[in-house]
């Protein structure tokens, strides 16, 4: 993982797509590594964790979906943002991709402008003031510096996107945030992404909190958006 220049690992088996991605990402100032096989992509990410992974859905030997699952299980790669690249455009496919642990999902064919916006957003972190290095809500505590979430003293494992989502919600406790506001505050983009993406990640965050005993903390305000409270 690069300190100064973000490094992106592309796991894609179509040579033409690889070259397009390599050229445009390098031109945008990123370091780029390439793997063209699912198993090799997982191994490369574990051995030398990048700052972000662009992961194709259909890959030889190991699908992008299964590769994403494996990366989320490993300590070395659990917190790396993952963007799925796929020709599958059905909503159920998008939900399946995000539910494996991907942070975002881009359908082919996509514009380079959109791709670069998504990459920038995935690498972006929410602006956190010094006073907000720890956030608490009842027995729920978020330690931003240590990237740790605890409920009643027990650790909760969530993806980087759900972590940022939780921070934004906790910084606005008992305020309702619309899907558009969450897209802007968490992902840093608005029109380039579907608001359904927010719903999927809210669902993942809810399940993680519920598993730890925090059912009902994230609330849906029908017609408006989401809020968090005890």
From TrEMBL:
InterPro entries: CheY-like_superfamily (IPR011006), OmpR/PhoB-type_DNA-bd (IPR001867), Sig_transdc_resp-reg_C-effctor (IPR016032), Sig_transdc_resp-reg_PhoB (IPR011879), Sig_transdc_resp-reg_receiver (IPR001789), WalR-like (IPR039420), WH-like_DNA-bd_sf (IPR036388). The keyword DNA-binding applies. GO terms for cellular component: cytosol; protein-DNA complex. One of its GO terms (biological process) is regulation of DNA-templated transcription. This protein is a positive regulator for the phosphate regulon. Transcription of this operon is positively regulated by PhoB and PhoR when phosphate is limited. Residues 132-230 form the OmpR/PhoB-type domain. The keyword Phosphoprotein applies. One of its GO terms (molecular function) is transcription cis-regulatory region binding. PROSITE patterns: OMPR_PHOB (PS51755), RESPONSE_REGULATORY (PS50110). It comes from hydrothermal vent metagenome. Residues 7-123 form the Response regulatory domain. Its main location: cytoplasm. This is Phosphate regulon transcriptional regulatory protein PhoB. Keywords: Activator, Cytoplasm, DNA-binding, Phosphate transport, Phosphoprotein, Transcription, Transcription regulation, Transport, Two-component regulatory system. CDD domains: trans_reg_C. It is found in: Cytoplasm.
